[in-house]
Write a structure and sequence with these properties.
heterodimer, A: 176 residues, mainly alpha, 8 helices, 73% helix, globular, B: 266 residues, 11 helices, elongated
Chain lengths: 176, 266
């Protein structure tokens, strides 16, 4: 993506094309982040749309203070998820067949879906902070630095959370 | 504490190397044999998590979300105070959008196509272009449309400069810059499609810079600094676009160095 800083500035100035470029770049990543956080397709779709509409409303307030745009965007996504939790005050487990899974042949899909379901149920049992770091690092591909800024924590704290999340998942999956 | 921190750094390094396909899991374990017993299960869990997280949004949902965003972008672009000319402006803007949406393919802008930056329907023209861009699906078509819109911006700059309306030249310049930037964005274009884009950029780069140089010679003295800025931006962005698409930068630059000829009319 050419010069993200220019795109963001132009989007802030009202350039719809610039905003649309940012939207295309981040849409799938935000969706995956929310899918991991909430574990439900319908809710993930609705919340993903909310994230970008909120982004459109508030992008004028974004300031480049050493934090990348991705961190700000995923902080917006986090706040949308938190608002959703407050309103819903429940978490749903992921229906097995609803999500489209990338790049699997039919023969592999049966075993793969069982494994996917198991892992997703395990993720749902993590603490919210652990689930958030899993979503940022593994679903959305943010770097340690970007994740740290999105969560308002140090890079060391993110690595520690990542470690503890994977340890917890290992324990949960081994005890099934 | 230091021992724990080093393991977290090692774990993270392995995760990033495996994700970036710089190492396999086995290579990571071989690199850190002292941690292998603890690392292996965590790396395997991480691989399973990454696989489980690779969900894709439904195509129908993406299309619906895109339409909703388009509506929000349009509403944002057309916010205006109540009263006065609002009613007819809304009609003109809506008509422009409908005409763009139902027009034949191939990048034709029907409504307000000839509006200049100093005219009242110019925002409608820009909104129509942005909506057209939004609905342009492939990356190569977006790049080609941006190249075409850069040409449109240069036509506008030509008209405004000749009319002595330099404030409008300055207002159009950022859009020109953006179009040229996006015209050269080749990272997601299939390799087979790049030569066509490259040819367009080479042709446009030579033609547009020659026209700008000729125009600069024809306008009053007070307009020359603004046109010099446009010229420098165009050269910089075309050179960047040509490098991104494997264009013949040296050939284009040698054309740029040739003395101006012709009357530069667009």
């Amino acid at each position: 993506m050419p010069d993200e800083q220019s795109l963001v500035r132009q989007a802030q100035a009202g350039d719809s094309q610039a905003f649309a470029t940012l939207y295309e770049e981040y849409f799938d990543r935000v969706y995956r982040y929310i899918a991991v956080r909430v574990g439900n397709q319908t809710e993930a779709e609705d919340l993903t749309q909310q994230v970008f509409l909120k982004c459109l409303e508030s992008i004028g307030g974004f300031r480049w203070r050493g934090a990348p745009f991705a961190s700000w965007l995923f902080r917006v996504a986090h706040n949308v998820v938190i608002d959703h939790y407050r309103q819903a005050s429940r978490r749903q487990t992921l229906p097995l067949d609803e999500f489209i899974v990338a790049d699997e042949s039919p023969e592999e899909l049966v075993d793969f879906k069982l494994e996917v379901e198991e892992v997703k149920r395990a993720i749902a049992r993590l603490t919210d902070a652990q689930r958030q770091v899993i979503a940022l690092r593994f679903a959305s591909g943010l770097s340690i630095s970007e994740s740290a800024r999105a969560m308002g924590k140090s890079e060391g704290a993110i690595k520690a959370l990542q470690h503890s999340a994977l340890q917890a998942l290992k324990r949960i999956l081994r005890t099934k | 504490m230091n021992k724990v921190r080093r393991f977290e750094d090692t774990l993270n390094e392995c995760l990033e190397n495996i994700h970036g396909k710089r190492s396999t899991l086995e290579e990571c374990l071989a690199r850190y044999p002292e941690h292998a017993e603890d690392l292996e299960p965590l790396l395997r869990v991480a691989l399973a998590v990454e696989k489980a997280s690779s969900v894709e949004p439904r195509p129908e949902f993406k299309a619906q979300a895109r339409s909703r965003l388009q509506a929000a972008l349009y509403a944002r672009a057309h916010k205006h105070p109540r009263g006065g000319r609002a009613w007819w402006w809304q009609w003109a803007a809506a008509a422009a959008v409908l005409l763009v949406l139902f027009a034949a393919g191939g990048g034709t802008l029907v409504a307000s196509a000839d509006s200049m930056p100093d005219q009242s329907l110019y925002p409608v023209k820009i909104a129509g272009e942005q909506i057209q861009m939004f609905f342009t699906r492939s990356d190569v078509d977006k790049a080609k449309l941006n190249a075409r819109l850069a040409e449109v911006r240069l036509q506008e700059i030509d008209r405004m400069a000749r009319a002595g309306k330099l404030e409008h030249v300055e207002k159009v310049l950022p859009r020109l810059k953006q179009h040229l930037e996006m015209a050269g964005y080749a990272q997601r274009i299939p390799p087979g499609k790049v030569p066509e884009l490259r040819n367009i950029l080479e042709t446009n780069a030579m033609r547009d810079v020659a026209a700008l140089k000729a125009l600069k010679e024809q306008v009053p003295e007070r307009a020359k600094p603004a046109l010099e800025r446009v010229l420098q931006v165009s050269k910089e962005k075309y050179e960047k676009a040509l490098r991104a698409t494997g264009g013949n930068v040296e050939k284009v630059k040698s054309e740029w160095e040739k003395p101006e000829r012709g009357n530069g009319n667009r």
